[in-house]
Amino acid sequence: MKIVLFPQHLAVGGAMRQLGLQGGELRRRGHSVSVVGLHELETEWREWWPESLGPPQSLLARPHPNRARELVALTGAVWRLRRRVRRERVDVLYAYHGNLARFVGWLATRRTGTTVVWGLRGAGRSYTLRRGPSVALPFYACRAVSRAVPLLIANSDAALARRVASGFRCRRVVTIPNGFDTETFRPDADARARVRREWGIGDEPTVGLVGRLQPQHKRHDVFLHAAASVARTRADVRWVVVGDGARAHRAEMERLATELGLADSIVWAGFRGDMPAVYNAFDVLCSASAREGFPNVVGEAMACGVPCVVTDVGASAQIVGDAGIAVPRDDAVELARALATMLDRLPEVRRDAVRALIVDRFSLARCAEATEAALAAAAGSFPPPSSPASFARREVSAPRARSRP
User: Do 9 and 134 fall into the same domain?
Assistant: First the structure.
């Protein structure tokens, strides 16, 4: 098949990392795969982009603040993308994430012979006009045309169920969990020692949180409050925050850490391109997110043998299974209790068993195999499989009643 992967933006994040992995694996399976982004928001993602996929292209630069100009630019992007899929005789345009990319992809492939497939990578949120027209209108546009879309692929059952409940009626919907590169993400004692030296950490137990600093998403504030609670009885624990974001929000979180008494025990590591080494430097990974789809950081850390404490959002609890602890979202007290429990368990944790859960259930090869079959079936290359794949590739039936978002 000739496949174009079409993300809404080229930027640092789990969706882009997963896109690069899946695209590379599909290429290795003999397909022609290229990546075209709608917008390029930043360039740091280039540091870890797989060379085997070739450099992605973007149709537009950053979104224009003037709505009229942005609408003109988007119209031009639709026509450029349409010319490309016709000229190259693309079999499948996989609008990988983002409502705007999904709608632009649908417009660009109308009556071209190219099959459009939508991807759902995040938490499957619904949108209202209160969030502003630039956010809400692409959602409503996608909902309106969803019946004409042959396939929607989500990476978590929770996100898919929420999107179906909000009124999306694609002809077929399926869950295919993310896959992880377990050759890149694996235990590495040398990398662990190197990164811990860099951070000034010796043998102290270390808990890390990885994620862009975004208000109301990764919930760094909840993590910090939980860390402060644990620190009252476990002064030996070191805390590491990996990721960057808006300067004002980072400054706010640093002030909060100081107010909570964590200034001498926390490391603000910023953006890192050497994530396998970073995970190995942790003893526990914490995900305090308020919303997730299928969080890559959890699977990547576990592939390195690191146990995780997560909030029960998206597929987080599904990923950690019995090897981790899941707690309700936005609850710093429960999160602190779970972190303390996991820290106490560390002498008994078998890192090989933690890693085995990811190798056995969420390998990149199995994800690519299921994605290949789904895309081929949507494009009419061969009929869909008679039964779901054993690692949780399954379809969700859309209800007849249409509910408001």
Answer: yes
pLDDT tens for residues 4-20?
999 998 887 778 888 99
> Crossing angle for the helix pair 220-231 and 332-345, nearest 10 degrees?
60
Rg, C-alpha atoms of the chain? 21
Residue 14 and residue 149 in one domain: yes
Instruction: From 378, 372, 381, 380, select the one nearest 170 (Cα to Cα).
Output: 378
- Number of Cβ within 10 Å of residue 363's Cβ equals 18
CB distance 330 to 221 below 8 Å: no
- Please check whether residue 101 lies inside any domain of the structure: yes
Per-residue pLDDT band at 390 (split at 50, 70, 90): very low
Tokens of 71: 């609408």
399 or 264, which is more confident: 264
How many domains does the chain contain in total?
Answer: 2
Alpha-carbon gap, residue 207 to 111, rounded angstroms: 52
Q: What is the rounded end-to-end Cα distance, in angstroms, of the chain?
A: 36
Element (H, E) at 39: strand 32-40
Closest C-alpha among 26, 80, 75 to residue 58: 80
At a CB cut-off of 8 Å and minimum separation 6, what does 375 contact? 1, 3, 92, 94, 117, 151
Measured distance CA(57)–CA(286) in Å, rounded: 34
- Residue from 189, 191, 262, 197 nearest 223 by CA: 262
The residues pairing with 284 across neighbouring beta strands, listed in sequence order, are 207
